[in-house]
Specification:
It is a single chain. The chain has 284 residues and is mainly beta. The protein has a 15-stranded mixed beta sheet with strand order 8-7-6-5-4-3-2-1-15-14-13-12-11-10-9. Helix 1 (6-14) packs parallel to helix 3 (161-168). It contains 4 helices and 15 strands. The longest helix has 9 residues, at 6-14.
């Protein structure tokens, strides 16, 4: 995996929580029937880079969710994430990344995944299909110099990185012990990666341009690559309300640091009541 993928970095931040390998953590009882999201939801994120006095927004990721079709008598949802650099930065390093996932609406387990990455002169395609019985993954990875067809040994809680986002938002965060590393399993390219996340606790976090929010704070291990050494941890803030929307992340990289922030949203399922009104302090 190229850890330099703009949208992949953002999605790693968005997928804030998953359980131990082989056994999924139960859904939050308050969300078990209704889920933390519904078709029609739209989220927009901005990627930001900092190195010394250099601070700049470099691109965006738009994440959307819609109803797909019936598959085996069950409803599928279709998630799409599109990442791109701003036109000015295209002159230096152009990024056009698209991720698509189809997953069951009832248990949020993946059925199909497609990844189409164009970064500078680098391109790669992923096509995954999950076996519903074994949860192994029939994977095709297309690169400019070769095509690889392989069977990845997934298990009941091996996700693609986009389905991971939606599954994680429904976890029972109150069941997490603070300071404990919890394994995370996801597949990308020709590999399955096992990293971890750790719940830190609740915190009020200011999101640039949007104000302050009550949040759930996490740390997550990152994968070594061209940007990350593999020693860093990404810090993640998720809205402390029924939507469980990822709000902000930050992480050091080999040169400087990166962060991502929520810039826009539409059709959230529940009231966005983790947002603290601007006049709340004055009233106190």
């Amino acid at each position: 995996m190229r850890a330099s993928d703009l949208i992949c970095v953002l999605l790693l931040f968005l997928a804030a929580a998953l359980p131990a390998a082989g056994q999924c953590m139960p859904l939050d009882p308050a969300l078990a029937a209704g889920k933390a999201f519904s078709p029609g939801e739209r989220l927009t994120y901005i990627a930001h880079y900092q190195w010394g006095a250099l601070r700049m927004d470099v691109g965006t990721a738009d994440v959307s969710l819609d109803v797909d079709t019936l598959y085996g008598g069950r409803t599928l949802l279709h998630a799409t994430a599109v990442g791109r650099t701003y036109r000015f930065w295209d002159m230096f390093f152009k990024v056009r990344d698209t991720y698509e996932s189809k997953f069951y609406q009832d248990d949020i387990l993946p059925v199909y995944f497609h990844r189409d990455v164009h970064e500078g002169k680098y391109t790669v395609l992923n096509y995954y299909r999950w076996d519903p019985a074994t949860r192994h993954i029939d994977a095709t990875v297309v690169k400019p110099d070769r095509t690889v067809d392989t069977l990845l040994p997934g298990h009941g809680c091996t996700f693609d990185i986009l389905t991971l986002l939606y599954h994680a938002r429904n976890m029972d965060f109150d069941a997490l012990a603070q300071g404990v590393n919890n394994p995370v399993s996801f597949a990308i390219d020709e590999e399955i990666f096992d990293i971890y996340f750790r719940y830190i606790g609740r915190e009020v976090k200011k999101v640039p341009g949007k104000g302050s929010f009550r949040t759930l704070k996490f740390a997550a291990k990152v994968v070594a690559g061209e940007v990350f050494t593999g020693e860093e941890e990404m810090i993640i803030w998720v809205s402390d309300d029924m939507n469980r929307v990822p709000l902000y992340f930050e992480s050091p990289v080999r040169v400087g640091s990166v962060c991502g922030r929520l810039a826009g949203w539409e059709n959230l399922k529940y009231p966005f009541n983790s947002m603290i009104p601007k006049n709340a302090k004055k009233k106190r």
